[in-house]
Design a protein that fits this description.
191 residues; alpha+beta; NADH Oxidase; 4-stranded antiparallel beta sheet; 4 strands; globular
Length: 191
């Protein structure tokens, strides 16, 4: 496969340039016990409003009953490739603090934590593909999540597999050139 590194307009850190979201995971790869600890530690040290650290993660390794429950909650188009990942992580967030006060920035904070573990994964030669296509209620019920904990996304984690295992449509997405808006399109003011 050709390089998937981003064609950046200025140099960026290697884990940022090489980060992308594959669908072809090597289903023979398995994590050793504790192998994801550094990813979760990276998430733990992400910034959060008022240091609330509202993120919570459900980590499931392929072959476990938790992995099967998460896969069952994914929409079919995600489940058919994500089942090959070495692990699935449900990214959840506390929506209110202990006294019931809303945490309005908690979802933003979770995004920073997931970004942190995604970049840590890349620095270790791993890949992360985040998904929004899943049944939130099924995850909530399956893992008995408290009322104030909301599942936001699911991430597949593992090493690259052969794109030939994917459907034709998925293969074309897997190998298509990476594209982003130009800086001038996303920066509103640069004084």
């Amino acid at each position: 496969m050709t390089s998937r590194n981003a064609d950046t307009s200025t140099p960026v850190l290697e884990p940022i340039a090489s980060r992308w979201s594959p669908r072809a995971f090597d289903e023979t790869h398995a994590f050793a016990p504790g192998a994801l600890r550094s990813l979760l530690e990276a998430a733990r040290w992400a910034p959060s409003a008022r240091n609330t650290q509202p993120w919570r993660f459900i980590v499931a390794h392929r072959g476990s009953t938790s992995f099967a429950r998460i896969t069952d909650a994914l929409v079919e188009s995600n489940a058919n490739w994500a089942r090959r990942a070495s692990a699935l992580i449900v990214n959840t967030v506390r929506l209110e603090d202990e006294d019931g006060s809303p945490l309005p920035w908690s979802v933003y904070d979770l995004g920073q934590a997931v970004s942190s573990y995604s970049l840590q994964a890349r620095s270790e030669g791993l890949y992360v593909h985040q998904m929004g296509g899943f049944d939130h209620d099924a995850i909530r019920e399956s893992f008995n999540l408290e009322r104030h904990i909301e599942p936001i996304s699911v991430a597949a984690v593992g090493v690259l597999g052969d794109p030939a295992i994917l459907t034709e449509r998925q293969q074309s997405r897997e190998t298509a050139p990476r594209a982003r808006h130009e800086l001038g399109e996303i920066v509103l003011v640069d004084d």
